[in-house]
Amino acid sequence: MERALVSLNLSQLVAGDSAKIVEMPTVGTAFLRLREMGLLPGTKVKLIRKAPLGDPLEISVRGYNLSLRGTEASAIQVERVEGA
Amino acid sequence: MSTETAAPSVVANPTEGPVFAIIGNPNSGKTTRFNVLTGLRQKVGNYPGVTVEKKVGVCYSQHGRPMKVIDLPGAYSLAARSPDEAVLRDVLLGRRTDTARPDRVVCVVDASNLERNLYLVSQVCDLGLPVIVALNMVDLAEEAGIDVNAVELERVIGVPVIRCQASTGMGVLALRLAMSRAELARPAFEWKIPDKIVPAVNEVIHGLTAREGRDRIGAQAEALTLLSDRENFPLAGSSAPSPIALDVVNRHEELWRKEGYDWRGALVAARYDAIGLVLERVQRSKPRIGVAMSDRIDAVAVHPVWGWFVLGAVMTGLFLSIFSFAEYPMNWIDSGVAMLGDAVRGNMASGDLRDLITDGVIAGVGGVIIFLPQILILFFFIGLLESTGYMARAAFIMDRLMSHVGLSGKAFIPLLSSYACAIPGIMATRTIEDRKDRLVTILVAPLMSCSARLPVYILMIAALVPGERVPLLTKVGIMLLMYALGTIGAFLFAWLFKRVLLRGETPLMILELPPYRVPSLRAVAMHMFERAFLFLKRAGTVILGISIILWFLTAYPKHENPEATAAAQIEGSFAGSAGKLIEPAIEPLGFDWQIGIGLIASFAAREVFVSSMAVVFSAGDDADETSSTLRQALLDAKWPDGRQLFTPLVCFTLMVFYVFAMQCISTIVIVRRETNSWAWPLFQVGYMTGTAWLASFAVYQGGRALGFS
């Protein structure tokens, strides 16, 4: 209910949450690299944890773990899915 | 790609044997594969004009024919984002003027992370070169419940797939046999270029084949690389992309941008779609039972609380071993060098040649190799941290703190290593992709108090604190203050440089956190010896030259009286004159010309300050920083007007000077090598010496104003 109305970004997930990427920016070096690392609209990701100081984040994507900063993560729109 | 089925590739010059490029994602075990293939038959150099390491080895075919193997830097994509990746792209596309295009490619693929690894494979298969896939870490994949059908993979992408496993040596022979084949089929990794992009690709192919005589596959590879990599990380020593292709690509991209079409994303997605289809056919995963070992380790290693303890423990272990284990071999080297000097002294007629050899060559080179044990241990640890996967975690934990001064977590280990010695620290900055961040890290690394400053600190603390034995707490307190001063300085300057000199965005922290792995000791040892050898080669040669010059400056011109004391000789020498020349500049810091000689002599290496003070104040040849004779000689030293020279304030000021001053030729040489220019090391000498002077001035004059002496 709430999910459908309020947009959610990757950095707002809590550790253990699984989500599907809905939309991500198309310009910028960081986002091209993230797409090449396998983050594409429709890709399932899971937030593993945040670093001890809250940033960067560690996510699991396509079977491996990747770290990215909160600044990038907050530009990636996601929707929660049931855990994988 | 399906567009063309070319004839199998036959090596152009069969007597030479094919040239292989070995490529792969970072953490795929590529370097270990390269080491196993080539053994110790390796040559390490640099790509001219770029600070990327070039490693070439020789491997023997089934029939004993030598085959050249180039180890290209690890990369995730041909759309380069770092000099390392740009080198990979340009070598494979045949754009390097210094390296001919390889004949064949061995692509190392991590079987436990197949999906993302196949992305690079798919790009490389488009290049038209014959490819062999080394399916690495099949054991780890099996442990993780992933079963990869190599035979099926071979069928789907049309290239030989060799199952490999580092721990048992599986696949070594099979890989060599595959490499020895006279003919290798061209890959057939099919994927569908999005319809909207096809016209642009075709136009480039048409232009390049018609007007530049390029082959179809090469032209298509050029088009796809340009389309996915418009910013095109240019590299010195590489030929620029074809203007015809650039023109076409620019035109189409302009249109797409207006339409809001994300062509780069479409290309990436198309490849991943094709990879998904391949995976459906070749990969079976069982759901994992329980939590993987890596996750269990990480639950502690990057825990909000325990993570700091682990990091602290690892770092403490690193420094304890550097300072304790290294002590014995350092003493051996020290006495070995002394013995060698004595042997020469005993067997040669006295004279300038003898002095040149003993005091110049042997002492100078000895002063460099004494740090070899520390450097070896440090590289061993760095190799260990890297190959186990902890390095990435340390960067992950520290990233937030480092981002305050505009750096990324990747700068943490290089800076930390610099506490032992700036040289390995600076060499470790190669893991930082962003050029500006790497430069900033290199510029501030020598501010971290390295072990060569210790002798100076120890001597000054001994002279500073009255009494025969310095209370441990005082010693530790002052020492910690110096380390803190250097560290704060490093961060302040990093912040300043990122703001003013090398402005750029806060670096990315897109970093793979690979599963923990048991490291191969052989690989770590090879890494260690390779680095140490590079250090000796790069620093050793220059140090030799500088030592000879410094010896000359202290030995000439000769004192009229051949019986003159060493101190009198030095006073009249070029070095003595130079000390007197700079006296006006250092007097405001409380230093006289005799200290000036020490500053000049120790420009080559900080610890030389101690031995030159021993000579200047005639404390005897074997005086070192802990000997009481040298301490007494310093305490007895006076200004011409009878004031004490080494007052506590002067000792303290000298320490502050050494915290900031760039007194190390080896570092200058390494920075020159790593930045590929003399401008950066010279700037570094300038800013550090300037800061050292200003800080010393502030301490000395401020201290006097406050009534200290």
Question: What are the defining features of this structure?
Answer:
heterodimer, A: 84 residues, alpha+beta, 3 helices, globular, B: 709 residues, alpha/beta, seven-stranded mixed β-sheet, 30 helices, elongated, disordered N terminus
Architecture overview:
The complex is a heterodimer of chains A (84) and B (709). Helix content of chain A is 19%, strand content 36%. Chain A is an alpha+beta fold and 84 residues long. Chain A has a 6-stranded antiparallel beta sheet with strand order 1-6-2-3-4-5. Chain B is of the alpha/beta class. Chain B has a 7-stranded mixed beta sheet, sandwiched between helices. The longest helix of chain B has 35 residues, at 521-555. Residues 1-8 of chain B have low confidence and may be disordered. At the A-B interface, α2 and β5 of A face α3, α10, α16 and β12 of B.
Q: Strand-residue fraction of chain B?
A: 5-15%
In the sheet with the most strands of chain B, the strands line up as 3-4-5-2-6-7-9
Element order, helices and strands of chain A? HEEHEEEHE
Mean pLDDT value of chain B: 85
Q: What's the Cα radius of gyration of chain A?
A: 12 Å
The geometry of chain B reads as: elongated
Low-confidence stretches of chain A: none
State the helicity of chain A in percent bands.
10-25%
- Distance separating the two termini of chain B: 79 Å
Determine the most extensive contact between two protein chains: A-B, 30 and 43 residues
State the oligomer: heterodimer
Number of strands of chain B: 12
The number of strands of chain A is 6
Measured by DSSP, the beta-strand proportion of chain A falls in 35-45%
* Side-by-side strand order of the widest sheet of chain A: 1-6-2-3-4-5
Structural class of chain B, by secondary structure, is alpha/beta
Largest sheet of chain A: 6 strands, antiparallel
* Count of alpha and pi helical runs of chain B: 30
Q: How many helix segments of chain A? A: 3
Q: Would you identify the regions of chain B where 5 or more consecutive residues have pLDDT less than 50?
A: 1-8
